Amino acid sequence: MSILSVLYWVYCLAFALDFRGEATGGSSIQYVFLLLALGSGSLIVFLGWRALLYVPGVYLILVWTAFLALSPIVSIGQGVSFGNYVRCALPLFLMGLSFMVMQVMAGHLPSPQKLLFPLVVSGSINIAWRVVYALGIRKIPISEIRYELLSSAAPLIIAYAIVTLFFSQRKLPWDVIIAGGLTFGSLFISITRSYIATAGIAFLACVAFFYGTLKRGQWTAAAIRGKLRQTLGLMGIGVLMIAAFAATNPLVLERWVGRLFENAGTGAETSTDVSVLTRMAEADTMFATLSHNPHTYLFGVGLGASYQWDESYLQELLLVWGSRDDLNDATFMPGHSTWVYAIFSSGYFGLFCYLAVFLGGLAFAWRVVRKLSFHGHPPDEYLMLPFVVTLCYLSQTFTANPFMDRFAGLIIGLFIIYPQVFLNRYRLHQAAAWQAHAQPNLRPTPAL
Fold this sequence. Notes:
Radius of gyration: 23 Å
Mean pLDDT: 84
Number of strands: 0
Distance between the termini: 22 Å
Helix content: 55-70%
Strand content: under 5%
């Protein structure tokens, strides 16, 4: 195993045991995780910096670097606490580092499987660890547990499981059964509705890709029959797991009914869903803050700027909380919408940069799928994965902010640049084929 491969494993595993603590500051063990990620990632970039220049990945790196370079200037100019800035900016800097890490790894032409496996392992560990930490260490009752169970790796594993369900050529993907079981089990306990949409979007994307592979003649009749048998088997396992858990934990089912069919989840009537109310209260405050000084719409008020929910929503929210204690305390953490917070903290310039990397990443992944899917060749699950993973994280940005967590920045950055792996390998293959055609009598030089 090369030094780059070892460093890549360290980088992917650095935040596998990360967690959401109760305190506002980081613990000493979390600083160790951060040093492992920064140290291994920086070494990868140092050892392979020449690969950073490959296109189109370099364009996404340049856009995000410009955003990161401006962000501390805005925050300092707006008087934001340096500690608050660091906590909010760290996942974004990790995403930028991941851009460069994957660009370097792609330049050394490893197999896509070797780059994906450490992330699947790390994500599975983090999902299991969140459950152990919340239920076993913090001892949060299952009747109260919510976001504490949510791992930043959940959208990755959802995408991986559904893509594998459609396109894997493997007979029995045990990694999908284990990782998918951990993910969907933790999401079921946490009563998180937004992941229903995330799974639905991943499914629809795979349906579209599947239709495309059929049109290109990438399936034989025997392969389709085998895939249907495998899909029914995996779906059956999933249904049995959910049914068994629901039968042994009826309280979880009751909480799901409350979240899906009761506005407040407590029997209190509000004008709309309480989650929508909290997001509206947050967004109204953020835009009102910008409106006080219209020039801030250009570059925002800085990453880490403090805000409170709009007072006009508190009367309804009190129907759920019952007390004003901690309901409207000032906070500086990223809000419940990546896009609203992008405008609040970084203005329209920040919004442009977020859109450029997400939409640019999707366009990059789509271009590679179209370019490298060939008639008569079976579909490649790894080729489809970057598009679906990026789409899953994008779906989360409207109702949540994935960049609350360091691990999310690391994962998203790696997958936005992941298509560069396929593009570089294709270019090398084409160059070799062209050279062989141009100089058919050329004999390989013996190795020294």
